[in-house]
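Kindly review these tokens for lecture notes.

. . .
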Amino acid sequence: MGKALASLQIGTGCPWVRTLRLEGKFPEGSTVLTLRSVNVLRKYISLLDLPFSLLHAGDVLFVLTSKEVAQAKRAMSCHRSQLLWFRRLHVLFSRYLRINSLHAL
């Protein structure tokens, strides 16, 4: 698949990333991946979303191991001033810490 260039998909996508790709401004052999958004219920059921993600998998599905999740949580805890109560809840319940579905443009 070559080098992967990741982009955050917001709403209908990132038109500027799509434009850059169509204009051939990415290195040859690169793949642009966008993060698939999910509805709010799926967003906060954490690992319980895995069966839905497998059924509706995009081009790439990343599922972090327990060790990788622990590492991400340690990294978040290094920024205690930023880790407010609502962000702690997000880290605890969000599927995006554990599961990410990506779509290749």
Q: What stands out?
A: The chain has one domain: 4-104.
